């Protein structure tokens, strides 16, 4: 039997964590024959709830789960890990400004970056889910200087899955027939869901849908606002779909993307597509041997250019705000 993949989930007692630990334990990410060791981190007041999650993992009798380590100590949670799902974050409270939320979360991801740097394997793959995901991932990497920056990414896969599902519903086709939807930029309402390069059964989506006004209007705003629509209906934010997307993201990173297909991930910009170098920008990427590369050469029309600029501008502002929070906390 292979030695287990050591996987950390932070915020493991929360909503997303509840679905995510089951999916990882079921073999959905690292394979049905790969044992996993689950390191579950949450904050001290949540240790009771986390204990309950551990009981349920045991009661699932999952063959892949070798052992489970519940803890409130990042040194234990990140010890020698191969993969990290950083879900735990401060939720937005009533009356809280976006800037206050950013400040609270940036501090969490600074501390976790430092702990990853100290305790995790240098090959660790870090996926940041907790919001603001792109900027949290940037800060986390900044404070983990001995881990390659390519090992940090932010989740926009839920937005990609939402875009794919909207197109499939519109055309009345199974969701798997829709490929290569792209999310550009920030995981926020400025993101640009783009199906200009997407296909359905090999045919361009723009041709199959044959309604440019919808694709350039309501389709984009539906995907951008889908998180809010789920909150309005459920009174809680997306959790099952967020956990599924986190598994999809890590599975693509671990196992690679099929030839001719790409997925969207928030990764360090190298300036591709005229974006600001150094921000965590969501791009279409190919993945091979656990290394992503930005898909190059896609034609960008004026409509897309404007959208990329707007979301890139927001990411630069978030980065500047986050850096000043970190500098003030030194
Ligand atoms: N990127 C995306 O697509 C996406 C989608 C959905 C949700 N999210 C974000 O994911 C995060 C989690 O969502 P949720 O619904 O599971 O929230 P939740 O409030 O149910 O759970 C969050 C958990 O994180 C824990 N936590 C807080 N600070 C922590 C710390 N410093 N270390 C470890 N754990 C800590 C909390 O105690 C809680 O158990 C939120 O920031 C949410 O906005 C992102």
Automatic annotation (TrEMBL):
Q: Which GO terms describe its biological process?
A: malate metabolic process; tricarboxylic acid cycle
Record-listed NAD(+) binding positions: 11-17, 42, 105, 129-131
Quote the InterPro entries the UniProt record gives: L-lactate/malate_DH, Lactate/malate_DH_C, Lactate/malate_DH_N, Lactate_DH/Glyco_Ohase_4_C, Malate_DH_AS, Malate_DH_NAD-dep_euk, Malate_DH_type2, NAD(P)-bd_dom_sf
Catalysis performed (reactions):
(S)-malate + NAD(+) = oxaloacetate + NADH + H(+)
Residues at the catalytic site: 187
Domain Lactate/malate dehydrogenase C-terminal, residue spans = 156-322
User: Does the keyword Oxidoreductase belong to this entry?
Assistant: yes
Q: What is its EC number?
A: 1.1.1.37
Binding-site list for substrate? 92, 98, 131, 162
Q: Which residues form the signal peptide?
A: none
What keywords would UniProt list here?
NAD, Oxidoreductase, Tricarboxylic acid cycle
Give the Lactate/malate dehydrogenase N-terminal domain ranges: 5-152
One of the entry's Gene Ontology molecular-function terms is: L-malate dehydrogenase (NAD+) activity
- Please state which protein family the record places this protein in: Belongs to the LDH/MDH superfamily. MDH type 2 family.
The protein, known as? Malate dehydrogenase
